[in-house]
Design brief:
heterodimer; A: six-stranded parallel beta sheet; 24 helices; 39% helix; 16% strand; B: six-stranded mixed beta sheet; two-stranded antiparallel sheet; 8 strands; 56% helix; elongated
Chain lengths: 722, 509
């Protein structure tokens, strides 16, 4: 059960020819796959394409009806390897992942797939995690396309164009026997738009047919001498075939414009941004009519030399709008045109920045600067008159606010089970001294930020333990701690980290954070999810896996039990035992837990059943406003409010109404011996008769004592001699 | 080439505030109003409590060209090209301003409530950012600035902020959609329809009438509520600028101990007033001291904590804060973990001191100390705290009381010595009381830094720059928990003194 349910939206996948489809681009891609007669789909979740996996998972019924096989792959490498089904059989297959991190993981299989070549269309839908909102290092998928000679589609961010490109992508793949990547940027993935649907198509060739009459061809195997032949084939046959298809089907678009002597070339994904910039500069209308000729590369690899020559003809200069670096397209175009003897100037990085996202503001400034140098005078005066033409000041962010707006980094959610574990780690480090921490990818990455400030490096998904290898000799008695999530553990951490630490007998401490889901990507199930799956088997024990590869020292703790966590950490860091030590820290992701339990509890309360909910609070008159609790917790619901005490100026800590009652703040106050201002309220809805009688008796006694206390208080106030 | 352009709207929200829900509603509103709409967002990791932007564009179908072309919608807000900006929180309003999204064409709706960032919350004192300059800029930069507490609106209707945001958008009339279309969209969404509509309507009507809810103020003590003798004394002795604080101080100490303890407060205060009137005319020191002294004299011992936890007014407050509904029952559990120091502090001075110095009895006591989760809703739990609170009459005999009075005396003496010779320094030393807060280790850390600063101040009575130095030390003491900055600040001071004494001639310039 993922964070977001598409159960309602997936019904739109059944729409037939002519119907208007409305929804997120990710959903549109799924519809495109079904319209194209895909046979099998796989992938690994990760923003911005997590929703694609969620949609597919929620659409299992529809997929089954059409005879489409779907699985959530173990990793991106697994997903890429799955495409091998298209090498020998005319099966259309599609996989998806987050790029470039996922493409990194997939690239072993991907390179081999590209060398073998495919019979059925093989499509990889990659979410380009670049620019604002990205969570990874900033690189380009383009490089992977170039190194393995895989074609790269970068369609205009428009639902119709994207869906169309899914189908074209399969055809391109089949025509040129080459796998194809369809790249979607972050905003395009989450874009809500419309397109006209076609009927879904069952695969023409089925997986059952393939299994009934297995095929092989020695020429497709990745062994010499076939590999030499495959390389030749790529250059001699597949590449020209791809270029032919791109030209014939006009996958790239050339829009003419009145302006003489200049033109703009752009990646398809940047078309809307470029067009809006031109519109704001008074050089295009919002419907796409531009005064400057445009060449839109919906296919960014391979490029088509003839199309470039044609577009450049008679132009003094071309602006290449190419996001990210290195500027592969710009370099290639320069080479094309020089070889063709063209004198057209190629301008790109320079007016436009080499690195960083091409936002509307960046592109506007870049185009303006290009025009100033190259545009004919009458065009320039048009641009001067436009809203953005004469007022570059509006484009400048307000610098004076910089210091006044505190940053808002992401953090662990309210009630997150990982919080008490990191608080425990902080407290143990206070006792035993600081240790080196190798962090990993997942929600626990946020422990590197405030308030925990824990972790010196992040090397890749599931690589926390592996990245501590050089620091695990144990010589000198100091031990390092490495972290790993349950998602990363199953992705590769079991072998790259745990088995390796056994094999090399690391004197190491590895903590596996087991929250039951691939939580950071939206709460997808993983092998150890405690759930009975309809299409698989959950509840595969991490502890058994760890012991199975030979770890002898294993402790499983509940993260909410800070005492237990601290004891396990203390023991692991000080034990005489020299081999690898693994702590499995269990605590269910609060978001998923809430989604699982909230409807049940609501129903029970409505039915009149006794339901207890908990929430925490702070007595504002007991809190002195030192905020040590916040520095150990960082829970979003543990916040500040102005001090109700007229004598105190510092704000008091305060638990707001988003509290889910996980109890960590109380545990922290206890474990760190902080302060007595925390309390827990157990609120009983639909109390039983017994509850009520108990309450009456207690209220009578306590009420009597409270009144007596108030009277004494009044006396004290009047008493003059102590 | 036509000059029509889509209407653009950006929502700056925090992960978990439902920016996506607002965005979905608006797409539906547009569809029902015969507009084309496109919505995008960049959720990613920002979804986990970070800041994120949702962006929408709308285009009326009636304005579509006859040739079948559709508008090319932008995927992100362009500075200078956004018609409506909604910020779901006061500092996020600053962030969109900083990005240049708000210009003279923008209707800018911002919620005035705060969701504090982790840096603001982690501060040892008050690290809250000031939204005032943001509000001023928002007014001057935008076409129209609408500010209201959307979170309070949502809370008051038992709803979530997304519904209030939608109401404010509708109320601003900046979008060409009718109220009915919004209501239909909420109904079509089908989730929490009633409460969403209530919050929507409330926010809408506030924006339409531009009438904000009155803010509740802080209860300030006045002379009227005090015993006549004390009220009369404050009126007579305390300069007007410090009277309000003195009233709060006296009423706090009456609540803390008794009348004679409140009188002791006024005795101490009078000593400083006398000193102050001789030196300065504006009684700055008196005011600062009156505040600090009241807080210090009401130090949080176990008796005080128990006292605050058992009051009827406190039970009422918890029921209100925890939103305990009619027909529901609440049980309150306290998280107390007194250390051995706190236990000994509550003993008679001699006994407490002996325990702290002992070995075996101390070990036994630390075993007793342990975790205490006491339910004050049960008779036995309540009685434990009741008995502890009843030790109030015995407080002046406790170890902690005697220790604190001794330290207060030292502080007072130092202030009286410094005030005539170095008023600015005395003022800074008076301010240092703010380091004394928290419980357990936190309190000890503050107290030890306080003691170090006081010792330094004593030595620096002749230094003209001493007030600046103490100020720097105090700020460093509050800058981080582990005292790194404080240690560095001390080292800087020591170094400066060394270099000064080694080049003694220079100091004469």
């Amino acid at each position: 059960m993922a964070e977001r349910s598409f159960a309602r939206e997936v019904e739109a996948l059944r729409l037939g020819a002519g119907a208007q489809f409305e929804g997120e681009a990710i959903l549109a891609v799924t519809k495109g796959l079904l319209q194209a007669g895909v046979s099998y789909i796989g992938g690994y979740q990760g923003a911005p394409v997590s929703h694609l996996m969620d949609v597919l998972s929620d659409a299992r019924d529809i997929l089954t009806e059409l005879g489409v096989y779907f699985e959530a792959s173990a990793s991106e490498a697994g997903a890429a390897a799955m495409l091998s089904a298209s090498i020998n059989y005319p099966l259309r297959g599609a996989v998806t992942w987050k790029s470039t991190v996922g493409t990194n993981v997939a690239s072993d299989a991907l390179a081999n797939l590209a060398s073998s070549g495919v019979t059925g269309g093989a499509l990889m839908i990659v979410g380009e995690d670049y620019g604002e909102g990205a969570s990874i290092m900033q690189e380009r998928t383009h490089a992977f396309a170039m190194k393995s000679q895989v074609w790269l589609l970068d369609p205009r961010p428009d639902s119709t164009a994207i869906v169309d490109m899914v189908e074209r992508g399969f055809e391109l793949s089949e025509t040129s026997s080459t796998p194809v990547m369809l790249m979607l940027r972050i905003r395009a993935c989450h874009m809500r738009g419309t397109f006209v649907a076609k009927n879904n198509v069952s695969p023409k060739f089925t997986i059952q047919q393939a299994l009934k009459s297995p095929r092989r061809s020695a020429s497709r195997i990745i062994l010499p001498p076939a590999t030499y032949a495959q390389e030749q084939e790529k250059i001699v046959d597949r590449w020209p075939a791809a270029v032919r298809y791109i030209v014939e089907h006009q996958l790239n678009e050339i829009h003419s414009g009145a302006a003489a002597g200049i033109g703009i070339v752009m990646q398809g994904g940047l078309y809307n941004t470029v067009l809006r910039a031109l519109n704001l500069l008074g050089l295009a209308d919002v419907f796409g009519a531009s005064k400057i000729p445009l060449y839109i590369l919906n296919v960014t690899y391979p490029l088509v030399p003839e199309e470039f020559s044609r577009f450049a003809e008679g132009k003094k200069a071309l602006l290449i709008v190419e996001e990210g670096q290195p500027e592969f397209i710009e370099q290639t175009v320069n080479q094309f045109l020089r070889q063709a003897g063209s004198q057209t100037q190629i301008v790109g990085k320079g007016p436009l920045p080499m690195a960083g996202e091409y936002t509307g503001a960046v592109v506007s400034v870049g185009i303006k600067s290009f025009l100033t140098q190259w545009a004919p005078q009458e065009l320039l005066s048009d641009a001067q008159a436009a809203p953005l033409g004469s007022a570059p000041a509006v484009l400048q962010p307000i610098q004076q606010l910089k210091a006044k707006v505190p940053p808002r980094p992401p953090g662990l959610c309210t009630g997150c089970p990982e919080r008490p574990f990191f608080a425990s780690m902080k407290l143990v480090q206070r006792e035993l001294g600081e240790v080196h921490v190798s962090a990993d990818i997942g929600c626990h990455s946020f422990a590197t930020l405030a308030p925990f400030h824990m972790g010196s490096s992040i090397m890749g998904y599931g690589l926390g333990s592996a990245s501590a290898a050089a620091l695990s000799s144990g010589r000198g008695g100091e031990r390092s701690v490495s972290l790993m999530g349950d998602g990363g553990f199953w992705h590769n951490g079991l072998t790259s980290g745990i088995a390796n630490s056994v094999f090399n007998q690391h004197d190491s401490v590895t903590v596996i954070i087991d929250n039951g889901y691939s939580a950071a990507t939206g709460g997808q199930y993983i092998p150890s999810s405690r759930v009975d799956l309809k299409n698989g088997k959950g509840r595969n024990s991490i502890e058994r896996a760890v012991r199975g590869v030979g770890v002898e020292w294993v402790r499983t703790v509940r993260t909410y039990n800070m005492k237990q966590c601290m004891a396990a950490l203390r023991e692991a860091l000080t034990a005489v035992y020299k081999g690898p030590k693994v702590i499995i820290a269990e605590g269910e992701c609060q978001l998923n837990r809430h989604r699982r339990l909230a409807p049940v509890l609501q129903r029970m309360a409505k039915e009149g059943k006794r339901v207890v909910r908990q929430r925490f609070g702070i007595d504002p008159d007991v809190c002195t406003g030192d905020h040590s609790c916040i520095r150990l917790s960082g829970c979003p619901s543990l916040t500040l409010k102005s001090n109700p005490d007229p004598l105190r100026r510092d704000p008091v800590a305060h638990v707001d109404n988003s509290c889910v009652g996980c109890g960590v703040c109380g545990e922290i106050a206890h474990a760190a011996v902080l302060c007595p201002s925390f309390y827990r309220a157990d609120i009983i809805a639909n109390p039983t008769a017994f509850d009520r009688i108990k309450l009456q008796i207690r209220s009578a006694v306590i009420g009597f004592l409270q009144r007596r206390f108030e009277r004494r208080l009044a006396r004290h106030k009047m008493r003059s001699v102590a | 080439m036509t000059s029509v352009r889509p209407i653009s709207l950006a929502i700056a929200a925090l992960g978990g505030q439902g920016g996506g829900v607002v965005s979905d509603w608006l797409v539906e509103v547009a569809r029902r109003s015969d507009f084309l709409a496109q919505a995008t967002s960049v959720p990613g990791v920002a979804q986990r409590t970070g800041a994120t932007i949702y962006y929408l564009e709308f285009f009326p179908r009636v304005a579509l060209p006859a040739d079948g072309r559709r508008p090319i919608f932008a995927l992100m807000p362009n500075p200078g090209d956004v018609d409506i900006v909604v910020a779901s929180e006061a500092i996020e309003a600053g962030r969109v301003l900083e990005r240049g999204l708000v210009t003279q064409r923008t209707t800018f709706i911002a919620s005035s409530h705060r969701v504090y960032t982790i840096a603001e919350k982690s501060h040892l004192g008050d690290g809250r950012a000031d939204p005032a300059p943001i509000v001023a800029l928002a007014r001057s930069r935008s076409k129209r600035f609408i500010e209201l507490d959307l979170q309070a609106v949502a809370d008051s209707q038992g709803s979530v902020i997304s519904a209030a945001m939608l109401g404010a958008i509708c109320g601003s009339n900046a979008l060409p959609f009718l109220r009915q279309a919004y209501l239909d969209a909420i109904r079509a969404g089908g989730i929490a329809v009633d409460s969403s509509i209530r919050a929507f309507e409330r926010a809408r009507s506030i924006v339409l009438t531009e009438r904000a809810d009155p803010q509740s103020g802080m209860a300030v003590a006045s002379l009227d509520g005090l015993p006549a003798r004390l009220a009369e004394r404050i009126r007579r002795v305390v300069p007007s600028r410090a009277q309000e604080i003195a009233c709060s101080g006296v009423s706090r100490l009456l609540d803390y101990q008794d009348l004679s303890y409140a009188e002791l407060y006024l005795d101490r205060l009078e000593a400083i007033i006398n000193c102050d009137s001789a030196v300065s005319g504006d009684y700055m020191l008196t005011e600062t001291f009156a505040r600090g002294l009241a807080l210090w004299m009401s130090f949080e011992d176990t008796i005080r904590v128990a006292d605050l936890k058992i009051r009827a007014s406190r039970t009422q407050r918890v029921l209100r804060d925890a939103r305990v509904g009619a027909g529901e029952i609440a049980q309150i559990t306290e998280f107390m973990k007194p250390r051995i120091q706190e236990l000994c502090g509550t003993m008679p001075a001699g006994l407490g001191g002996w325990f702290l110095k002992s070995s075996a009895p101390k070990r036994w006591l630390s075993y007793v100390a342990g975790d205490r989760k006491i339910s004050t809703s049960t008779v036995s739990g309540f009685l434990q705290l009741y008995c502890l609170a009843s030790l109030r009459g015995f407080r002046h005999k406790t170890l902690r009381y005697q220790q604190e009075q001794l330290r207060i005396g030292e502080w007072l003496t130092l202030l009286r010595t410094l005030a005539p010779v170095h008023y600015a320094l005395a003022l800074e030393v008076a301010c240092c009381q703010e380091l004394l807060k928290g419980y357990g280790d936190t309190h000890e850390r503050g107290a030890s830094r306080f003691a170090i600063i006081l010792a330094k101040a004593r030595d620096w009575a002749q230094e003209p720059e001493a007030a600046t130095w103490v100020n720097a030390l105090r700020k460093a003491a509050l800058a981080d928990e582990h005292g790194k900055e404080f240690t560095e600040a001390l080292a800087v001071r020591a170094e400066a003194r060394d270099s000064l004494s080694s080049s003694g001639a220079c100091s004469l310039h």
